[in-house]
Structures are given as C-alpha cells and as structure tokens.
Amino acid sequence: MLNNRLQDMKAKMLYAKLDKDFSIESLKDDWSFMRFNEYISPLFKKRYMGIVLDNTEEVKKVYTATIPDTDILEKLIHTGETDILLFSHHAMGYDPTIKGFPFYNIPEDYLEKLKQQRISFYVLHAPLDKNGEYSTSVSLAKKLNLEIIDEFCEYEGVKCGVICKTGIKKATKLAEYICSMVGHEVKLIRSGDDVIHDSRVAIAAGGGSVGFAAKELSGLGINMYITGCTRLVPSVEPIMEFHRIISERKINVIGATHYTTEKYACIAMVRYFEKLGIPAEFLEGRYYLEDL
Q: What is this structure's pTM?
C-alpha cells in the first residue's frame, strides 16, 4: 500500500501505481529508434513505456517535464537533490532546428550523473496521449476553456483527440485567443471559410499533422483543428498527406508547437503525484516556433 509519508514512498511501488493507473500493459508505443545502453531499464527496452532509469529505491519528490531536453536535465542536476523521479511525456530530447530527425538521445554523461545522484526517469508517451483526466489533448482543451463534447483520432487502438464546442465564431479570432492563452506566437493555416462550422473545434496535441487525422475531421464536417506541429516535411508522407487533405477539404489549422500543446498534461500530472502525498513540481521547457 502506498504510504503518504514521503520517506516510505518506495520507488517500485510508485512505478507499479503509475503502470496500473495508466494501463500500460494494454497499450503500445515505439521508441525502438532510441539508443539503448546499460543505463536503460531492461523493461523499457521491451515495452517502450514506464521506467527508463531505475536509479533510486525511494522517491522524495517528483519533477514533471514534457521533454527530457539537456536544459531540463541541467536544471534537475543543479538542484543537488537525490532520491527523486523525473516524469516525462517523451523519452528523448527534441530539437526541430537540427537537421533531420528532431529527437536525440540523452547523452551518456547525463545518464551517469543521473545515476550518481539517484534520479530515476519514468515515461508515459502513448498512455498520456490516450484521452483521460491527465491526457495531452484533454489538458490542452481545459487550458483553452473549451467544452469537450466527443473524442476522435484513433491511434494504436485508443482515442487521443477531442472535439470541443467554442463560443468563438471565427478561425482568425480563435488563433488570437490561443496566442494570448499560451503566451507565444501560433500559426493559422487558412484553408477555408473563416467561420467555424457548428462551433466545433478538434484538438490533437503534439504531432497531430497526419493524414488519418485530417481524413477523420473531413468526415465529421469539422473545419477547425488545433495541434502542435504544422510545418511541411517533404520527406514524411503522412505529413504531406495531411497538408493535401486540409487544402482540398478546406480545413483550417492552428499550430501552437509540439511542446506547448503537450505541456499542460505534464503540469496536470503534478496534481496526480500530490494526491499520492509526494511533492511535485513542473519544469518549464522550451517551445520551438520551427514546428510551425
């Protein structure tokens, strides 16, 4: 049984609680392109979810982050704290300014420092995208004060997008509103009518610029979509298909960056850990307008 006394919070019990609450045994994910080494938990090498670095026997505090960039790891190491857990949505760093694939492996010198400082690392990617209380698209909708009325965007057997009602009538006004809410520039791709049809808006946080999502939106008659990444990537066919469909079907899209659209889930996870009696804190990362 999990004990609310911090010194009694055993790490393996916390991992098991997370595993169960987010149903990771019934889900699929893929980090096979990640470089595995002796630091990485054998369990993560098999299922690509859950504990990545098992470096502590008890957890005194949790830090949540969207992406384990080196900047985040520096913040964590410089706290000087030991026996802590880093919880993240992604298992690798992310930088769309680098040439080619934007995800990068955590450098081994950082992995060694985390081990020496007894900092464990736990990841929920697909399980946190799956619609639920703490999920990415749900958390973004809540941040934007949009009323969730349905879900869509099935991926690997689960729904990871939501359909919402909005009182904002036009795409241009919605883009202005989202910009004010997230605190940075967003991109509006105007492919059709500025009027939002039936007051319905679809959200799929993160990398939602994929063809199957656009096809589903078209079938639902929705002409307003919010996601993270909107830039053209000629080498990635699902993204190119997405842009063809939104142009043909006149679907307007607002991009608010990969990081920003997913971070509200990791902020919400602070509440999850606090309910277990564990102090938790969100580490602010970096958004990239190059996603747009």
A: 0.95
